[in-house]
Design brief:
By secondary structure, the protein is α+β, with helices and mostly antiparallel strands. The chain has two helices and seven strands, in the order H-E-E-E-E-E-H-E-E. The longest helix has 36 residues, at 2-37. The mean pLDDT is 82.
Length: 162
């Protein structure tokens, strides 16, 4: 009777392991597919998809760091393309500073101009304060962990302090 039960348990474990392996392969395939094709399935196209063949008046999404500002808007540096520096001129009433990260929807105009319709601005100092707060939280977590646990070098395991 015990041998039948142990055989049955082995079959269940093997079936579960096989099912888990198949599910992990499918999950990894979907992750790689999304990583390679997510830009094609966005609601609005991005500038990186089609640098110069956009339709004037088309709504695009954009996320980049502000390069320069001027009254009534700012410039975004896209990079170099065929030996030329590519700048986009954004007309916006919102105030931004050099170095801020900008996520927005905008309408493409001739001569690399964009009129923003919806914008999210992440200030440069906000990004640095987020990193600093994360480091402080990490140190606090290490101190709390060290208070309740210790590492046993002989057995190479963590033990709860008494």
């Amino acid at each position: 009777m015990k041998s039948k039960i142990s055989e049955y348990l082995k079959k269940i474990i093997n079936n579960r392991a096989l099912s888990l392996t198949i599910l992990l392969i499918i999950f990894l395939f979907l992750c790689f597919y999304y990583y390679g094709n997510f830009m094609e399935h966005q609601e609005y196209p991005t500038v990186t998809q089609d640098l110069f063949n956009y339709t004037v008046g088309e709504t695009i999404s954009f996320s980049i760091t502000v390069e320069k500002t001027y009254p009534g808007g700012f410039y975004l540096y896209y990079g170099r393309y065929q030996g030329k520096n590519i700048y986009y001129k954004v007309n916006s009433s919102q105030e931004v500073d050099t170095g801020d990260k900008v996520y927005f929807l905008g309408i493409m105009e001739p001569a690399n101009q964009i009129i923003s319709t919806k914008m999210i601005i992440i200030k440069k100092w906000s990004y640095y304060s987020l990193i600093l707060r994360s480091l402080v939280a990490f140190v606090i977590l290490i101190l709390i962990f060290n208070k309740y646990w210790y590492f046993n070098h002989e057995k190479r395991e963590f033990r709860r302090r008494k």
